[in-house]
Please model this.
Amino acid sequence: MKPGRPGPGPGIRAWSLAVEASRALLPLAGLGSPKRARGVAARRGAVARLEAWAGAGRDPSRPAVWLHGASAGELLGAAPAVERLRERLDLQLVVTWFSPSAEAALPSLSPDVSEALPLDTLRETGRALDAVRPSALVFAKADLWPGLVASASVRGVPLGLVNGTVGPRSSRLHWPAVQLLAGTYARLDLAGAVSEQDAARLRLLGARPGAVVVTGDGAFDRAAARVREAREPGSEASRLRAALGLEGPAAGAVGPGPVLLGGSTWPRDEALLLSAVAAARAAGRPVALVLAPHEPDGGALERLSEASLRILGVRPRTWSEAGRAEGAADAEPDTEAPWRAPLVIDRVGLLAGLYAFADLAYVGGGLGTDGLHSVVEPAAAGIPVLFGRRHARRESADLLERGGALEVGPSTAAEVLTRLLSDGAERARRGAAARSYVEEGRGAAERTADLIERLVERGGG
Model:
């Protein structure tokens, strides 16, 4: 590590003290949410575990890249760039995360070590950095932490941001966040922005103009690659239509009709989809429904079982159950027409590939306050994308403008779904527009790998 910049100012020191003071209250943050409780528990001892890895596994002859992302989506967007970087450099990869959901991204990154983000105090982040000795510290998308950035800057660790994005209504652009984070963004050596608009907003947040470049969004490369992988013979995702009891090729309307896949759904999304499917079927438009809840735990499965029985008159089947039935030589279908029962994806990590075998997609999170999930993954599969009206993603606005997506709500979902089911030409046109949008956005992985390599070179790696 090279000699660092001036030490943290009063604002960062105050932040560090405030975070330290909140340590005793952290267990309260996990009350009522098993996922948050897991995150709180994982932060305890995170620094000690990083120090233990560094003592046994850190190879000082190889550069180390520390990549941090809030959750799985942010880290997966960086995965294509990491893959290309490994083709150029013999590096070690350290991955930290804020939400335990990020663990779903780890197989795609194959890190040398992964760990929860240490508590964002100058003391804890400093210990972690002294142990890992990274050649570069890279943040994915948006999750910059003032304490970690300041500690790295003091130690001369080059700092970067990849797939950087700032929504036009982001709270970070307003007081008090903009004042607190200005010094944090100013310490970035290189910041790869998704678009020119994101680059302008990064500069408003304090990033130095000369440090900001437009590299695009690696999520486009990632989504396109996942579709290609899923369509290879023998992939697990290719079982989707067989699990539904459908026959024929994966593309097009076959058997009883098209497949509607609801991805990363929450209760409001599921109620909307079940009701819309019931209405479409009543109108003579059969459609198979697949639901991939955002949190496929026991509570979600129980909730979906009750709702499906009440609205569609049939209990759903799970992906795991369908797999066991396919593997049994004397298996009998659960119903006369298995596609009538919704298929619930009770495993994480499959969703992006499953879109490749659906005919329509609905992306969850746009009806309440949960936040719209990735619309790039279904768009890469070349199918029309539906979502609720509460969305702030640049990609969702772009898809709407290009005709690859449609907004729906409780009062319109049934009509929109029935129309798309009856009009194959409209489905094809909107699907082609969605796929074209993703193809135009590809190439970010190479540009992002270039950016990280430049940071590593600055760090002496």
Remarks:
- The chain has a mean pLDDT of 91.
